[in-house]
Design a protein that fits this description.
Blueprint lengths: L6 H15 L24 E9 L4 E9 L1 H7 L9 H9 L5 E2 H4 L7 H13 L3 E6 L2 E6 L7 E9 L5 H17 L4 E7 L18 E8 L13 E8 L13 H17 L15 E6 L2 E6 L36 H29 L1
Parallel strand pairs: 6-7, 7-8
Antiparallel strand pairs: 1-2, 2-6, 3-5, 4-5, 8-9, 10-11
Helix pairs in contact: 2-8, 3-5
């Protein structure tokens, strides 16, 4: 079972499962005896996972980026932070040799003064080179912007997909299928153990895949290493690829997908520490299998992001004594939690880059 009763805890475990075992069937889970599950499919793409991303019209619970490993490694040349739409316009079109930025970049559809501001920001971050010749600003690329994104997979997380939840979700999934911004759409639900999972009986679009997840173990604080949790993923219905036929010629779709991918690259799925209060004395991280999920000692359960705010009646700042070592530069436990989650996010990128280098040597 997912920690707590909220969808938030289930969402975090889905993200961790996708990060380690996407696509479904690509990973050989082992149980406590070490026995392997049925043969796995090969995983050829590098995978990045983010959560709560989308457009003004639609926000997805979980976003899986299937990336070209070499392209993903080349993307690292432009730093860990995301490139917003204005920076992407500059970086993607920056010339190999010095040129006036108005000659080098296509017309953006808005005043050039905003492009000039983006050029200064890009140069300040080191993602392009800039120089002034007379009264003109010239730019040159530091490296070609790579074609690192292959596919976008959208996942809606509904641990308890009852009839009312399915009705509300159906219209949203229809929108995802029709717009085709993502290449594949899934619904992740918690396995019930029934011979036929209830999700199969709901009125969901036929193009949407259904995966039933079981997180055996639970939220157990007794063990320092956390509980032994095995994640079982059963594909109840395989999705249909919803990529439009003219996707290769649709530059607007490509631009929107790159902007979405850049936000996922910069934020990841562990960024909940930016919207919650790890500086509260009751905020903890609990290990559930291979995932670290937030836990509130005051509520004695996994809290939601909406609950964990300065307006929470149980909020208490960390005592000053907790922050004496290294304060105020390094901070207390709350700062440590932020560093830990940021480090785990970067570890995934490093792992994918190292795998690419290993493949090249072989």
């Amino acid at each position: 079972m997912a920690p707590g009763t909220a969808e938030f805890g289930f969402e975090l475990l889905v993200c961790r499962w996708a990060e380690s075992a996407w696509p479904p069937g690509s990973h050989e889970d082992t149980d406590e005896s070490g026995a392997a599950s049925p043969p796995a499919r090969a995983r050829e793409d590098a995978v990045l996972v983010a959560r709560q991303l989308g457009t003004q019209e639609r926000r997805w619970d979980t976003v899986v980026l299937e990336c070209d490993p070499a392209g993903l490694a080349a993307r690292a040349r432009f730093g860990e932070r995301e490139l917003d739409s204005d920076l992407l316009h500059v970086v993607r079109n920056a010339p190999e040799e010095w040129a006036w930025y108005r000659d080098a970049l296509p017309h953006p559809g808005y005043p050039w003064r905003y492009v000039r501001a983006a050029v200064h920001r890009a140069a300040g971050r080191g993602v392009v080179e800039k120089r002034r010749r007379g009264n003109r600003i010239e730019i040159r690329r530091v490296a070609p912007y790579p074609d690192w994104l292959r596919r976008i997979v959208a996942i809606e997380n509904k641990p308890d997909l009852d009839a009312s939840a399915a009705r509300a979700l159906s219209a949203q999934l229809e929108h995802d299928v029709e717009t085709g911004l993502a290449d594949e759409v899934w619904v992740a639900t918690e396995a019930t153990g029934d011979r036929i999972e209830p999700a199969l009986l709901e009125d969901l679009p036929v193009d949407v895949g259904i995966v039933a997840l079981s997180f055996d173990g639970g939220d157990d604080a007794a063990s320092p290493a956390g509980p032994h949790v095995r994640t079982d993923a059963s594909v109840e219905w395989y999705p249909t690829e919803v990529t439009p036929p003219d996707a290769d010629r649709d530059e607007e779709r490509r631009r929107r997908r790159l902007e979405l991918a850049e936000r996922a690259y910069g934020r990841g799925w562990r960024s909940y520490h930016e919207t919650m209060r790890p500086d509260c004395r009751h905020f903890e991280l609990r290990r559930v299998g291979r995932a670290l999920v937030p836990h509130c000692a005051a509520k004695e359960r996994s809290q939601t992001a909406a609950e964990c705010a300065g307006s929470c009646p149980d909020f208490e700042p960390e005592p000053p004594a907790w922050r004496t070592r290294g304060w105020p530069i390094e901070g207390g436990p709350g700062k440590g939690i932020k560093r830990l989650l940021a480090g785990r996010r970067e570890w995934i990128r490093d792992r994918e880059r190292e795998q690419e280098r290993t493949d090249e040597r072989e």
